[in-house]
Amino acid sequence: MPGPVHRLVYDTYSEDRLRLLGYCLSDKLTVLKEYRTAYIALTQDELKRSTTRWVTQKGCQLCPVDRRDTAAILLTERTDRIRISFRSKGDFSVNTLAREHFSGGGHLNAAGGDSFESMEATILKLYKILAQYKISSTVA
Predict the structure, then answer these.
(1) pLDDT winner (highest mean) among 44-48, 102-106, 135-139
(2) CATH code, domain with 110
(3) How many helices (H) and strands (E) does the chain have?
């Protein structure tokens, strides 16, 4: 029966996971309406405050994508890089974005990559890159 399995895998949240999710959504979420994109950037210090490894394993589940032709990005600071997780819906290929700009890859709607620059420099680079991509603004 898929119901109980689904509930155990996807609907069981520890207190720590819920607190991290709340913090990310209330304090760290940046929405870029002009690019139909949202991102969350977490530093090593912020990640250390949480005992859950969920954020590094399930990345962009922190950044829900609920409409077509949108993208969500999670940036997590590691000791030697910024790890970037991308998710999208519709025809926007985050695989292309990750592969061409962040030495990564994946598939059309889920991909990952790395930046070896600071968090600030990586976010600035992301803004410049997103300005080059055409994410449909016709779907609300």
Answers:
(1) 102-106
(2) 3.10.310.30
(3) 6, 6
